[in-house]
Amino acid sequence: GAVVSQHPSRVICKSGTSVKIECRSLDFQATTMFWYRQFPKQSLMLMATSNEGSKATYEQGVEKDKFLINHASLTLSTLTVTSAHPEDSSFYICSAGRLGVSKETQYFGPGTRLLVL
Amino acid sequence: GQQLNQSPQSMFIQEGEDVSMNCTSSSIFNTWLWYKQDPGEGPVLLIALYKAGELTSNGRLTAQFGITRKDSFLNISASIPSDVGIYFCAGQKTQGGSEKLVFGKGTKLTVNP
């Protein structure tokens, strides 16, 4: 159990276009979903936290108008990178929080590799 | 943003050897987690630690949550080639109503057959 999927797995786009990434929890309902960005040979950095039906909470330094997050249901969250630029090229990973015995544990998706030309 | 101090940064070992890596923080965390990430994949949860002083095993992996809630170690015994990857520690704490994770910088493990 606790499977999280992401689509697409990789995407190449032209500078100035928008890209949508989907994150789905396949076998459980996620109380919260998180979006991370990981640059090469770096650690994961939290971008935003989203709860179903409410606005996402963005980490300091993350532009909410550039990285649009829609948490439509308890199993789906989307991240849209608007007007993408080459510096937005990165590995984007989502996670879904699942309430366990006593704590919420995050399970990660396989990631989406974004390359902006 | 805040990060945990994870060491060593990389390790090169022979198959069959034991491995140890650790993380420290100036902050207290409710939960410590250890993840493994293969190239081009998302992190996979290995062990979760919920109580200070807790020692937990998962097969050849053993991890402990420090008494002060500011550190943790992960041991891998009798390493095998498929242990290759990047291991991340993560501290979890409640912030803004959500359980947020703060990651270490990772330990890259290479196992020579």
Describe the structure.
- The complex is a heterodimer of chains A (117) and B (113).
- With 117 residues, chain A is an all-beta fold.
- Chain A is 0% helix and 55% strand.
- In chain A, strands 2, 4, 5, 6, 9, 10 and 11 form a seven-stranded mixed β-sheet that branches. A four-stranded antiparallel β-sheet of chain A has the order 1-3-8-7, with no helix packed on it.
- Chain A is globular, with a radius of gyration of 14 Å.
- The N and C termini of chain A lie far apart (37 Å).
- Chain B is mainly beta.
- Chain B starts with a strand and ends with a strand.
- The mean pLDDT of chain B is 93.
- The A-B interface holds A 4, 6, 32, 34, 42-46, 49, 51, 57, 59-61, 91, 93, 95, 97, 102-111, 113 and B 1, 3, 30-31, 33, 35, 40-45, 48, 50, 88, 92, 96, 98-106.
Short description:
Chain A is an all-beta fold and 117 residues long.
